[in-house]
Design a protein that fits this description.
Helix content: over 70%
Strand content: under 5%
Radius of gyration: 13 Å
Number of strands: 0
Number of helices: 3
Largest sheet: none
Structural class: mainly alpha
Shape: globular
C-alpha cells in the first residue's frame, strides 16, 4: 500500500484507540466548515461526519461545543 494508504490506516487505528478525542476532532472540523460556508453545506457535512464516526466506531456528537 502507498504512503497515503498507510497514513490513513494509522489514523484509523489511532481513532479506534481514542474515539473520544477523534470525535472532538471530527466535530471540530465539521463545525469549522459549517461556519466558513455559512451552513450552506450543513447536510453534507453532517453526512460526512457521520460516515467518519462510523468508520472508527465513534460516538457521534460531542456535547461540549
Amino acid at each position: 500500500m502507498g504512503k497515503l494508504g498507510d497514513m490513513a490506516n494509522k489514523a484509523k487505528e489511532m481513532a479506534k484507540a481514542h474515539p473520544d478525542q477523534a470525535d472532538k476532532g471530527v466535530d471540530g472540523v465539521e463545525r469549522m466548515v459549517d461556519e466558513r460556508t455559512g451552513d450552506k453545506y450543513d447536510a453534507q457535512t453532517d453526512k460526512a461526519a457521520d460516515a467518519v464516526h462510523r468508520s472508527y466506531g465513534g460516538g457521534g456528537e460531542v456535547t461540549d461545543r
